[in-house]
Every structure is written in C-alpha cells, then in structure tokens.
## 1
Amino acid sequence: MRSHAKNVNYRVAERDFKYYIFDWDDNILHMPTRIHLEKRMPDGTWVPHSVSTAAFAVVRNDIEHFRAPAGVWDKAFSDFQDYDNENESRFLRDAREALEKVLSGATKPGPSFHTLRQTLVEGRLFAIVTARGHEPESLKKAVRLFIALVLTPDEKEEMLANLRGYRACFDGLTKFGSDEEELEYYLGLNRYHAVTNPSFKKWMADAAGAGAAAEKAKQFAVRDFVEHVSKIMSRTGDHEFRNPISVGFSDDDPGNVIAVEQYIQTELARKFPGIKFCVYDTSDPSLNNGRKVVVSGQLDLGLQS
Ligand SMILES: [Mg+2]
C-alpha cells in the first residue's frame, strides 16, 4: 500500500527568492504559429507569405519587401488571438505540437525551456509576458500542459512538496488541499500577460494613460509582476527579507531586452532598491539560457550625471 502522507519541503524557507519573467515564443518554445505577411516580388506585386516568429524577428524591419496583408496588422497576427467559437485556444494547440516535437527530439527547446522547467519544479513564482493577444487562461493552460508533459513523476512530486512547503512556511498551513488544488493555487499566483490582448490593452490604458505606446507594454507587464511579487513578500513578514530577492527577465527579441533593461535602470531599480534584476538576452539560440546582464540598483550609482 502506498503511504498517503504528504511530502512537505519546509526547507524552502531558507531559499533565496528568485523569480522569473519569461517571454514565450523562441524563448521557451519554437511554436508552429505563423505570421501572415505579404512579400514583394521583383515585378513589384505583393503575394501572401507566412513566416515563423523567428523569421519575423529578422524581416520585421524590412518594409521594402514585407508588409502586413493590405497593411492590416491584425490580419498578420490573426493566429495569435483567441476566438469565441474555438473549443481550444490556438495557443494551447500550438504549444502541444511544439512540446511534442521537443520531447521526441525533432526540434530543440527554446533557450529558457530548462529554466522554466526548474522554476516549476522549485515552485517559484513566475510570469509569462508575450506580445501575443490570447486570454491569460490560455497561457495558464499551456503552462499546465508543460508540467504534465515535461516534468517526470519524480519532478512532479518534488514540485508538490515544494508547493506545500511554501504554503506551510508562508501561509501557515498545516493541512493541504489535493495535489490538483495546490497546483491550481500555485498557478493562480503567477502572472500571464499577453500584452496585445484587448483586456490587457484596456487595463494598461486605464492605468498608464490612453497614449501608452505599444512598446511600453512589456515594461508595464514587468512592473506589474515585480509589484505583485513584492506584495506577496510583504505579506510574509519582515524576517523573511533576509533572503536575497532577484527577478530575472528573458526574451529573444533584442529590442525588448534593451527596452526592459532601460526601464529597470531608470525606474524599477530606484523603486525596488532591494531587488537584484537580471536580464537574459536569448537571441543567440546556440547559447543555453542566453547572455546574462545584471542590472541592479547598486550598479547605477555614480553613472547618472
Ligand atoms: Mg520571443
């Protein structure tokens, strides 16, 4: 007979507080979702031409040869949205296909795939921040699928022991819910931001002013996560703050990396001087975990004229 005693890892209280913000496409997984563009032929006519997200990152600024269908970007990104008549989000379907390809060895995982896996096993807080336009629930379901397909049975058991440990140490729980309830509680604590989703755009416009530019969206989502984490931390009491807190951000788009780096330097490092920020540029697929840049409050001292 299997024992019904639940494993609880109380040692999570001694850990550092390391949290991650992940871009999804080409950072976690290479998704099969295509962007529908038009390509200019030598005779000057435009023909339909779909590209992967990785190829889009290369051709996006080549406006002489590539454009959205008749200039309408919503059409180019029609597969990056959820629709009312779907019984399953396109995102979940594409994530399943991408995960199966990784697990069969047909394609390489994204540079931050293993960091997400480790984050989940350790039960750490994280955020998914993507330029897609899906519902948060669709992103959450894809993370749940990641856990189901990628983590081994031992890793799932380890994750649940860590989750119960956090619940015991920080929420004072002595009795735990079912495995499913504890997993759902954990997934509910994390953030899932698709920054071109209509609800996200409205929320950002309400909070940051209607004129907030699209490129600010990732910065806004990053700030939301840091505020969210710091709120959870303050709930757990002062004595817990002896452990260092760090927040990592990984993205394969160099433009996003630079925008977030600058945002951390000019805003977040001042607002959260106790937090160490790390940015991982994963644009080079040959580098596992990407190129790490430490951007912390202390590094800024003396650099401002
Ligand atoms: Mg990406």
Note: The first strand starts at residue 17 and ends at 22.
## 2
Amino acid sequence: MLDPFELSRFKEAILAQAKRLGPDDKFHFACHPKLGCFNSCCADVNVYLMPYDVLRLKRRLGIDSRSFLEQHAIADALDTRGLPIVQLRMTEDEKKRCPFVTEAGCSVYEDRPWACRMYPIGGASPPAGKAGAETFYFVVERFESCAGFDEDREWSVAEWKENQGVAEYEAKSEAFKAISLHPFFVEQRRTLPLDKSRMLLMACYDLDTFRKFVFETSFLRRFEISPEIVERLRTDDEALLIFAYRWLRFGLFGEPTLTLDAQEVEQKIDGMGKMFTR
Ligand code: SF4
Ligand code: SF4
C-alpha cells in the first residue's frame, strides 16, 4: 500500500503520462463472469472511498457508519494536505480479498463504490473555480490479468459512465470535491491541522457520529437552522451529508455557509470586546 506522500506523487505521474479522453472518446472493454480473470481484480487493490460511497455501503449493509469504518475501511491516513484517505479494507489472509467479493461477483454491486464503477476509466478534476480547465478522463493502467481490455465491446467514456450509474455518485460528491480542491489547499497550499482533519473525517465519513454531534451537543443552539431542515437531518443521511459539507466550509475555511444564532454572535462580540479591554 502506498503512503500518502507516495500516493500523491503516483497520482501526479499518472496524470502527466495519461492520454486525455473526453466524454465522446472511445475505448474497448467488457467485464463478465465468463472471463478467466473474473473477480481477480477484487483483491489486493486500493479502492479509495468518497463519503457518498460510505453512505451507500453502510446503508446497504444495515450498519452504522462507525461500524462500517471499523470493519471494512482503513481510515487512519492523511494526504499531504491533511485530507483523510479512506479505503476499503481487504481481508487479512494471504488472498487480501475485498470483503464484498463472492464467487458470483460483487455482493454489493448496486452500491459498489465510485472507483469500482469507473474502472477502467479514471477521472481528474480541475481545482474549484479554475477557469478553462475541464474534467478529463483516462484509461487506467491495465490490471495485470484483466482480460476485459481484449474484448471487442466499444464504449465512449460517456456511455460507460451512464452504463455504470456513475452520474448519481458524481452529483452527490460534487460538494466533497469542491472541499478537496478548495483554494485553501490548491492555491494557498495550506495543510489542515490534525483537529480539523479529524473534524472532516467525522463529518463526511462517519455520518452517524456527526448526527450525534448535531443532536446531542449545543450545536443546534449555536446556528440558525430552520426546523424543517433539523427534522430532515434526524433521519435523512443524504441531507445530513450535504449539511456536513456546509458546516465544514464554515468551520474549515470561514465561509458564510451557516449563520450563527444571534445569541452566539452576541457572545462572540462580547468575547472579542473583553479581549480588547484586557
Ligand atoms: S466493492 Fe465490489 S466491485 Fe469493488 S472491489 Fe469489492 S467486490 Fe469488487
Ligand atoms: S480483471 Fe478486468 S475483466 Fe476481469 S473481472 Fe476484473 S475488471 Fe472484469
């Protein structure tokens, strides 16, 4: 497994060498159980997870996000900017298989992660707000035994994404990408302090713990949030994830994505006043 520093250099090297594809560019590929390599790629592989992947998988498995992270993920690394790196935990025997692979294929197929859907296509996005730069795609390095590249079936990138149900994952991950590629990291080249990295990990990836944080602390007294939204946050994971992104932009970058409660503002102003009269 690559450490975070190696990982970012690895990604840069791939992006520098890869032939760039647009949505209409074509490639050959097919994956099906008749191939001798069937299932071989679901072992000893780095499957990086986005928050929406975790949401879908924990819901699929009927477990809470903390249990999912403990049982099925590795979530203790940070990249060079302090962003959490979360990936699927392979089994610890010599086969190092994905916990969800079975003889019949992927047991969580309808909820498989974005990275599994996209293979053999990778995507690279420009930083938020960067003019003129567009997302581009590339064919990832061929998995050693992957016979799918030798099949005749031709796809455009857009057809492949449609066939694999990628659009929903991308739409639900836009706000996360905007945080990961925020000018704070990309232009200012700043790194999150450890406490804020943990805050990001909890809010994005451990939604059930974030929900407890929202409902079992003074959180709701500190921000102006409409009662309708509060009710949705109690039970709707997807609404909670969107809300988590708003809170993170407020907490990490100081953006006005949430409004402090009037009393909280008064206390802050009062506190600042005291600082200046000391
Ligand atoms: S989640 Fe499914 S497709 Fe992805 S590695 Fe595991 S078994 Fe394979
Ligand atoms: S190795 Fe390639 S063709 Fe074979 S199962 Fe995996 S993705 Fe499909």
Note: The chain has 13 helices and eight strands.
